[in-house]
Structures are given as structure tokens and as C-alpha cells.
Amino acid sequence: GFMTRYERKLFDDLKSPHLKYWVPFIWFGNLASKARKEGRIRDSVDLQTLMNEMNKYRSWCSLLFGYDWVGIPLVYTQVVTLAVYTFFFACLIGRQFLDTDQGYQGHDLDIYIPIFTLLQFFFYAGWLKV
């Protein structure tokens, strides 16, 4: 619904090894220039403002395309993996209960398996795999 059948045919017939996100921007620029020549856009400042906003939007699309084009370096995934497992190991050590034989006030043994720590690890490890 964003293109006419003729525009869709032109878009599909354009051969490019990359994404063709820029084609509608070219069409828009040509239509805006034509509208200025025909008097539909009365002021060149308005045309300039319109083209500046369109160029800003096109540069954002280009930046997004760049993020898609370049993969995440392997070292980032390694660092995140190391951080998740180190955090889990620190939680296992840090969330241990005190020895109940020592008789510390308010530190009675209530559970034997750290359920919430395990749930947290499964969440983080699952998130890491995604």
C-alpha cells in the first residue's frame, strides 16, 4: 500500500546486490524538486527544510543498514559470556548461608538449594544464547 504497482515494478526491476532503501528517497527528492518548479512549494527555504529532514532520515536508515552490515565482533560475545559465568560463580559464593552450628542470630538455614540464584542464572544464560 505504500507504492503504486508501477513504482513497485520499478523498484523490483532495479538490480542491486545491497538493500534498496535509498530508492524512495531519490523519488522523493525528484518529486520535491518538480513540485518547486511547478509552484506547489512556493519558497526555496521550505524545499530546503524538507530536503534536510529527508536527508536526516536517510542518514538514519544508512546508519541502521551499517549496523546490519557489520557483525558483532567475537570478542564482545566472549566478554559477555565470561561476565555471565563470573557473575554466577560470585553469586554462588556470595549467597551462601552462614553455618547454623555457630548460632548467629537471624541466620537460620531456610533452603538448601539457591532457587532464585539458579533462576537468575538460567535467565542470563538463556538471554546470552539468544
Secondary-structure blueprint:
Elements: H1 5-13, H2 23-37, H3 44-69, H4 74-94, H5 115-129
DSSP strand (E) fraction? under 5%
Average the pLDDT over all residues and give the rounded result: 85
Largest sheet: none
Counting helices, strands and paired strands, the structural category is mainly alpha
* Low-pLDDT segments, ≥5 res: none
Provide the helix percentage. Answer: 55-70%
Membrane topology: Multi-pass membrane protein
Family: Belongs to the anion channel-forming bestrophin (TC 1.A.46) family. Calcium-sensitive chloride channel subfamily.
GO molecular function, one term: chloride channel activity
Protein name: Bestrophin homolog
Structure description:
The protein has 130 residues and is an all-alpha fold. It folds into 2 domains: 5-69, no CATH class; 74-129, no CATH class. 66% of the residues lie in helices and 0% in strands. It has 5 helices and no strands. Helix 2 packs antiparallel against helix 3 (44-69) and helix 4 packs antiparallel against helix 5 (115-129). The chain is elongated. The two termini are 34 Å apart.
What is the structure about, briefly put?
The protein has helices spanning 5-13, 23-37, 44-69, 74-94, 115-129.
Give structural attributes:
130 residues; mainly alpha; 2 domains
